[in-house]
Amino acid sequence: MAKTIMAIGAHIGDMELTAGGVLASMSLEGHKIITVALTSGEKGNPKDMDVKTYRKQKQNEAKAFADMLNGVAIVLPYDDGTLQNSDQIKFEVADLIRAYKPDLLITHWKNSMHKDHETTHLIVKDAQFYAGIQGFERKDPAHFASGPYYAENWEDPEGFSPYVYVKVSEAGFKLWQKAISTHWFALHSTSFKYKEYYESLMSVRGKEARTTYAQAFDISPLSKKVIKDSLEQK
């Protein structure tokens, strides 16, 4: 049965890099992919482009990536670098969860060198709660999405432990390579080789998972309970 996956990042490109191989693979299997960026990530603009122009370019890049996965790209209008942990934004995200009814969520790990990533983690946690509780009366009825799965990001390493490995198919990897190439910074950033790094990381995680490519995720400690009747039980 087809699933709907909603990947929520602080900036355009965050989820496309950190979970993009999985999203591409799942899209080829017939699942519905929705990317949500709380900001455009516009302050990483090239030297020859102003922030306003780059914001529009980033939004076009988000759409191009999602289109290649037959998915949907949603970009909220908040400013890169100053994202606030507010109920206004949490309810906006909760409304998206209720409207699109994803089966599961993907977002940032809780610790990061980037404040917007940490803020997004908190926003998604509460938005998941608000979306799932009927007592919060909104336009759409309550809907609970499972997760979140926390994507592996080079900027979010503190305390992150690869726990869930999800295979990336050969076709999904190739689709991701094409789709992420629509993002200027992934190829042309002078501060970090984004595309090359995540290509390599997918290969490393794939070897650890006894396959060719994979992406790793962490989950809430409360979700890591393994319950068995006995130690002999497999």
Could you report the average pLDDT, rounded to the nearest whole number? 96
User: What is the topology, as strand order, of the major beta sheet?
Assistant: 3-2-1-4-5-7-6
CATH topology assignment: Rossmann fold
Number of helices, where a helix is a run of at least 4 consecutive DSSP H or I residues: 8
End-to-end separation in angstroms reads 27 Å
The shape, in one word, is globular
Q: Would you tell me the structural class of the helices and strands?
A: alpha/beta
Share of β-strand residues: 15-25%
Q: How would you characterize the largest beta sheet?
A: 7 strands, mixed
Oligomer status: single chain
Q: Mind telling me the CATH class?
A: Alpha Beta
Order of SSEs, N→C?
Answer: EHHEHEHEHEEHHHE
CATH superfamily: LmbE-like
Number of domains: 1
Number of strands: 7
Gyration radius from CA atoms, angstroms: 17 Å
Percent in helix = 40-55%
In terms of per-residue confidence, which ranges show pLDDT below 50 for 5 or more consecutive residues?
none
What can you tell me about this protein's structure?
- The structure is a single chain.
- With 234 residues, this protein is of the alpha/beta class.
- It has one domain: Rossmann fold, CATH 3.40.50.10320.
- It has helices at 14-18, 20-28, 51-68, 87-100, 115-132, 170-180, 184-188, 194-208; strands at residues 4-11, 32-39, 72-78, 104-108, 146-151, 164-168, 213-218.
- Strand 2, helix 3 (51-68) and strand 3 (72-78) form a beta-alpha-beta unit.
- It is globular and about 60 Å long.
- The two termini are 27 Å apart.
